[in-house]
Design a protein that fits this description.
Helix content is about 45%, strand content about 10%. By secondary structure, the chain is of the alpha/beta class. The longest helix has 18 residues.
């Protein structure tokens, strides 16, 4: 690589760092093994209990589909039970299955960095998944598994009552919208979901596999950031 090309790469990386967005050239261990420690406040139940805790207790020993057979921990969701912004992922991975919280592995670390770049405080939002138990081998959740878990997700959203929902990944987007289009056609625009604003974007794990998704994800998060700031003025 000649000097001019290297300089262009350096300038681009510097621009990305200044924006706070994860550097695409130096991923800084995004793929490293082992769960990241989740902030203690995220896993804590809402003080005094409430309908969200009651729902969690109701499904804690769920055996409604085959996913429970290999489950270590049910991954219900974490965050502010009164959040204005709710994120829906696809399903737990190995790290999440061990810890019991969503997005604590490599994809979660990337999501935290995107949150930081967008000025979104993780403790102010709520994060959950379409399915609450890990699909074997981190495979995609199957339609019957999604159908079994969807009433729980719907009830979570009803209880939390967020103003904005962000679907992370194809399965979350297609499940909420009831549309079979690929995520590339669903992202980048606002949708209405039962009176709430819904935006879709690629799952963080997709960015770890393909760096080409980082820019559209960042574009989507800038839309999300602006809408979130509008309902939560400083």
């Amino acid at each position: 690589m000649d000097g001019s090309a290297m300089e262009l790469l350096r300038r681009y990386a510097a621009q990305q760092r200044e924006s706070g967005y994860p550097d695409p050239i130096l991923p800084e261990g995004w793929e490293s093994a082992g769960p990241a420690a989740a902030p203690a406040a995220l896993g804590a139940p809402a003080s005094g209990g409430g309908p969200l805790d009651a729902l969690r207790a109701e499904i804690d020993g769920c055996t409604r589909c085959a996913l429970h057979e290999r489950r270590k921990k049910l991954v219900f969701g974490v965050g502010d039970p009164r959040a204005d912004l709710l994120f829906v992922g696809e399903g737990p991975g190995a790290d999440e299955d061990s810890v019991g919280d969503p997005f604590v592995g490599a994809a979660g670390r990337l999501l935290d960095r995107i949150f930081a770049a967008a000025g979104i405080a993780r403790e102010e939002v709520y994060i959950t998944n379409v399915v609450k138990c890990r699909p074997p081998g981190n495979r995609d959740p199957e339609l019957d598994e999604i159908a079994t878990c969807f009433p729980v997700l719907r009830r979570q959203i009803e209880i939390i009552d967020p103003k904005i929902v962000c679907a992370l990944g194809r399965h979350a987007a297609q499940t909420l919208l009831g549309r079979p289009e690929p995520i590339g056609r669903l992202r980048g625009v606002w949708h209405d979901w039962e009176g709430r604003r819904l935006i879709c974007t690629y799952h963080p794990s997709a960015c770890l596999r393909n760096a080409d998704y980082k820019r559209p994800v960042w574009d989507d998060f800038q839309m999300l950031r602006d809408a979130y700031r509008a309902i939560r003025p400083k």
